[in-house]
Design goal:
By secondary structure, this protein is an alpha/beta fold. The protein contains eleven helices and five strands.
């Protein structure tokens, strides 16, 4: 991939849409020629320079737009981050071999480590924007190193999170259910989902 543009799917609900800091950040990103914003049509009025339309979740369009941009911005909700729950965006981005910029979500940090570039979203909007802009500038100036990050994230995705592999582990998991106490079952569920 050629990591040249920043792909982001904005939402029109929740704390990230309502937050003054995130609106300021996205307004500043809207003026950058590398920004590619997708999502609900209502975003067009807020971010007219970077809004490119909505994408269907089924089919190849989401994957193709991600791959074409080459860099993905993932902003989890505060609830996701409080509980360390990932958005599906991390899997879409890693599956597309894009360079990933993410907020400091515990799941992403634990499972993708330093294959992802992180931002601190507890800062004011202008500082969030500056962090993202610095990452994008570094990526564009260091495409080889950035592509290595993308390759590592993709390898982690393939090794641990492919749906096909999860389904293949279900039979083994099912066969062990009848013979294990509750504590063992909890460990098996964790192993099935995250290893």
């Amino acid at each position: 991939l050629n990591p040249s543009h920043l792909f982001h799917i904005g939402c029109i609900w929740g704390d990230r849409f309502e937050s003054e800091a995130f609106r300021k950040c996205l307004t500043l990103l809207d003026s950058e020629n590398y920004m590619c914003l997708y999502g609900n049509e209502a975003l067009r009025a807020l971010y007219p320079n970077s809004y490119l339309g909505s994408l269907p979740y089924e089919g190849e369009e989401l994957f193709e737009a991600t791959a074409k941009a080459g860099i993905v911005l993932i902003l989890h909700s505060a609830l996701h981050n409080t509980h360390g729950i990932p958005s599906g965006r991390i899997f879409e981005a890693a599956g597309a071999s894009a360079v990933i910029i993410s907020d400091q979500n515990r799941f992403v940090q634990d499972h993708f480590g330093d294959s992802v570039l992180y931002i601190d979203t507890r800062q004011p909007g202008e500082e969030i924007y500056q962090q993202i802009h610095r990452h994008v500038s570094w990526i564009q100036a260091n495409k080889g190193a950035a592509q290595e990050l993308a390759k590592r994230a993709h390898a982690i995705y393939q090794e641990h999170f492919l749906l096909e592999d999860q389904l293949l582990r279900l039979e083994k998991f099912h066969n062990q259910l009848e013979n294990h106490p509750k504590e063992m079952l909890q460990r098996l569920v964790k192993k099935l989902c995250f290893i």
